[in-house]
Design a protein that fits this description.
α2 packs antiparallel against α10 and α5 crosses α15. About 75% of the residues lie in helices and about 0% in strands. It is built from 18 helices and 2 strands.
């Protein structure tokens, strides 16, 4: 007898979980530093446009396909086609992307957890700009410390995942997602009310069209793709727990809007404060751990806001990590017939073992490279530049040639109320989206 499949307890629960999966380090880290790199409002405008024209349709496509399959990524694609079909590659690519993302993403969670501890214990107080950078470099050079924090974060993810959809993921997301937005709003208000912060607000919102070039569009395209988590397994698996009459287009729209709002709010947290305290916005990947630590130390009541900020980003990373891990453990359940608890703890152990070299890549194995990259960067490259774009292309081609647009529209519009897939989506689905995804893949592999 086929095991009864779990389902979300409510529409709110699905939206909170799917938004939690989408809102992660891409919003809190990557979006602000790309905005800083590309001069503020111009990048924001292009990014929002890409989210509307590409992000919403593709995420809707993935959720609707998961709901149609009502099974894990690989088993679900086998049900929709047949075992051995080339279209099952979409399931495999999603699971592999999710697995390799887990191997390094949970390590970054460990960095955040470590910074929460260091902030609370005063280890990051009263340092100079150079000392903040040295503190981060010293943290990366300590494999024991990194391993302990990473193992703690993996255990947290496993504990929540083992409890299932309703008793684990749903309960956590229903609490942490609203709390995440509350903290974002509080931090944004504090940031924009600092003396001199309005210069940062003006810089962030001012649209200088001369800043928009091909690189701006490509970076916005990639940011929307990675932030929403397209073809990384989570959208399909979360969609598979939906009831057949759920409103996929409306839910997909709300999730992408929430994801975009979180990114925009994170900019209001960072840039007004950065300008108010005379720091540079274009700090690249150091923006989160070095620049923001320096910023909070100079801010009145900084330790409180620093704790809130790093806790906020940790929560965002945690909810995304749970979403990335779900396809992995569901695949173990489906293919090996393990129960959820066994699949969870064996799965997280495998993730830790495979991911351990990414910890050593910052220190004792820093000289070991693959294709000119250290192991951590190669892991990121493999999942983000190859597996996810390939999976998204397979999804787009499956929709165009097998599912067909009319069937996609009808399946997605199972509910008679709310936002619906419209006929004007057809050129987006048939032409714009496949072309954009191919550009992301080519750019990621060759440039």
């Amino acid at each position: 007898m086929e095991k009864q499949r779990e389902a979300w307890g409510s529409r709110f629960a699905f939206i909170m979980a799917a938004a939690g999966f989408a809102i992660g380090l891409g919003n809190m880290w990557r979006f602000p530093y790309l905005t800083g790199t590309h001069g503020g409002g111009a990048f924001v405008l292009v990014y929002v446009t890409v989210c509307v024209l590409i992000g919403i349709p593709v995420f809707t496509m993935e959720i609707a396909l998961g709901r149609k399959a009502r099974a894990g990524n690989i088993l679900g694609m086998r049900k929709l086609t047949k075992k051995g079909s080339p279209w099952v590659a979409f399931g495999w690519l999603g699971v592999l992307a999710a697995f390799f993302i887990c191997t390094y993403y949970m390590q970054i969670m460990g960095w955040l957890f470590g910074y929460i501890v260091k902030t609370a214990t005063g280890q990051l107080s009263g340092l100079t700009s150079e000392q903040y950078k040295a503190a981060f470099d010293g943290f990366m050079a300590n494999p024991v410390e990194l391993t302990i924090y990473t193992a703690i974060c993996m255990a947290i993810v496993a504990f929540i995942s083992a409890r299932g959809i309703k008793n684990g993921i749903e309960k956590v997301c229903n609490v942490l997602m609203p709390l995440l937005f509350v903290m974002l709003i509080i931090l944004a208000i504090r940031s924009v009310t600092l003396p001199g912060a309005m210069e940062g607000v003006k810089w962030y919102l001012k649209i200088d069209f001369s800043k928009i070039d091909g690189q701006t569009v490509l970076d916005a395209l990639g940011q929307a793709f990675f932030s929403i988590g397209i073809a990384s397994g989570g959208g399909f698996i979360y969609g598979s727990y939906l009831e057949k009459d759920s409103n996929v287009p409306s839910d997909g729209l709300l999730v992408v809007v929430a994801d975009t709002c979180a990114a925009l709010l994170s900019g209001f947290v960072m840039f007004p404060a950065i300008f108010a305290l005379g720091l540079e916005p274009g700090q690249g990947k150091q923006l989160l751990f070095v620049t923001m630590s320096n910023l909070f130390d100079k801010m009145p009541g900084g330790i409180i806001f620093a704790m809130m900020f790093f806790t906020l980003v940790f929560f965002a990373a945690l909810l995304s990590a749970i979403g990335y891990f779900e396809p992995v453990l569901t695949t173990l359940e489906d293919l090996l017939k393990w129960d959820r608890v066994k699949a969870t703890w064996i799965g997280i152990t495998i993730v830790f073992i495979v991911g351990f070299p990414t910890i050593l890549a910052h220190n004792v194995w820093k000289d070991i490279t693959i294709m000119g990259m250290n192991i951590f960067d190669f892991d990121d490259y493999l999942s983000g530049n190859i597996l996810m774009p390939l999976g998204a292309i397979v999804l787009a081609l499956y929709t165009v040639f097998v599912w067909k647009f009319e069937n996609f529209k009808n399946d997605s519009n199972a509910s008679e109320k709310g936002y619906r897939v419209m006929n004007w989506w057809k050129p987006l689905v048939m032409f714009l989206i496949p072309a954009a995804l191919i550009i992301i893949l080519v750019r990621g592999v060759f440039f």
